[in-house]
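Lab meeting, item 3. Inverse folding demo.
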């Protein structure tokens, strides 16, 4: 049985490398914001995908947490279960904190009319364009999802090395292709489009939450057999 104190110690263990989890995501995001502000000041650009920088780095953070830090964690006597739950706790903390900051910047962007140039950097249409609490919840779930997804990639690499990682990625691409073919053969693209068009931001967040839970379960199953 893993104690809460052990989970907290694992989360703090990761934060020895603070730049990976705290500084770099925001440095990259602010850099992306500045670039987009320069572009928006010169061209009539409003919507941008620059916020993907933050979410992409969360995936990288999750990946590094189970590739670089995992072996040393086990040498300290931490069980695989404790390591995984502690790393997941870190994901929850980062998702909650970063989500709160993103929500504040979302509100600031709205009050300044897109930083004075009409830029929608933190106000992503349909996804992050609702009340503050929904913006926080969606940000929280999205960041947590990508961090846990990155964790699973790192665990697969630790378990089966590069060959297994390539097979893992190929399997996901095959599944995606199968879904695309199934929708095409059943002539269901119109119905699929209506489903996502009619889906509210709350519904989308719910789907992402279910996907996050599935990724968490997959990573937990895999780490039990991971080697170092």
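The presenter then showed the designed sequence:
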């Amino acid at each position: 049985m893993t104690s809460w104190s052990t989970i907290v110690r694992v989360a703090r263990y990761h934060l020895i490398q603070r730049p990976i989890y705290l500084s770099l995501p925001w440095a990259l995001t602010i850099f992306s914001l500045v670039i987009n502000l320069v572009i928006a000041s010169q061209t009539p650009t409003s919507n941008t995908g620059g916020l993907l920088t933050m979410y992409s780095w969360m995936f990288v953070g999750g990946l590094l947490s189970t590739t670089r830090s995992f072996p040393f964690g086990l040498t300290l006597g931490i069980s695989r279960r404790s390591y995984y739950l502690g790393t997941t706790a870190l994901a929850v903390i980062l998702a909650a904190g970063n989500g709160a900051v993103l929500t504040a910047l979302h509100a600031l962007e709205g009050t300044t009319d897109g930083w004075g140039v009409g830029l929608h950097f933190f106000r992503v249409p349909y996804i992050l364009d609702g009340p503050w609490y929904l913006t926080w919840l969606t940000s929280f779930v999205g960041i947590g999802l990508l961090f846990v997804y990155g964790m699973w990639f790192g665990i697969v690499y630790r378990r089966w090395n590069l060959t297994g990682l390539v097979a893992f990625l190929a399997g996901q691409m095959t599944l995606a292709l199968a879904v695309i073919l199934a929708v095409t053969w059943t002539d269901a693209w119109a119905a699929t489009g209506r489903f996502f068009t009619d889906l509210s931001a709350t519904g989308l967040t719910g789907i992402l939450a279910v996907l996050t839970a599935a990724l968490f379960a997959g990573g937990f199953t895999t780490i039990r057999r991971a080697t170092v």
